[in-house]
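Quick one: co-fold with S-adenosylmethionine.
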Amino acid sequence: MDIGQRALGHFLRWWARHGGLAQFHRPTGAPGHLAGWIMGSRSSNVARNRWAARLLDVQPTDRVVEIGCGPGVAVAALSALAPRGLVVGVDHSAVMIGQARRRNRAAVRAGRVRLVHAPVEGLSTSDGPFDAALAVNTIGMWPDPADRLRELALLLRPGGRIALVSQPRCPGATAATSANAATELAALLTEAGFGQLRVELLDLDPPVACVLGRLVPEPAR
Ligand SMILES: C[S@@+](CC[C@H](N)C(=O)[O-])C[C@H]1O[C@@H](n2cnc3c(N)ncnc32)[C@H](O)[C@@H]1O
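Sure, here it is.
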């Protein structure tokens, strides 16, 4: 076994002892910093986040909330699209909020980006109502996602937009797995009061599914 393989073996054992893939669910400590660095520098993840931000049709004065913002790649893309608005990034990992703050330092200083260390569960903020909400590769980690989406709907203005993004990570995932994920996300959005749904796909392997919708007003009584 050469030195490179031995080093890789040591690294993988260290990584597994410190949570391994679970680090992407709630990054903590040094392994969490590494997970954040991977998410912030991997070209496919950067492309996925920028693509999702563009799909959300953000206007220059929009207020946008991103849940599970991780190292803040989409926050940066959103704030570039809303130079006179506000982007609020939320994550339950302090390590991720720190990385997102560093990535968006100038916009935070200018008051155009706010980063909130909090879980999505029972989220409340005085920064709303928001014009749009985004969640990239995180909703599968939320407890009771339908309840969370209903809570999120309360933070949006009527007609507010939402984009939920998923690239299935299970072994052997294919285009069909992505299509199933999109169907599940669409069902959750419908249950939470969103309509005008549409699905966009990004051609990665497997494809990334983004389900977009709008908060439909309650029927008049
Ligand atoms: C796979 S990472 C994706 C990060 C980022 N959206 C991206 O695509 O680069 C999932 C993120 O969701 C966050 N997360 C998971 N469950 C959460 C919860 N219940 N409340 C808030 N954040 C959560 C994690 O801390 C992590 O930063």
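If it helps, The CA atoms of residues 14 and 86 lie 39 Å apart.
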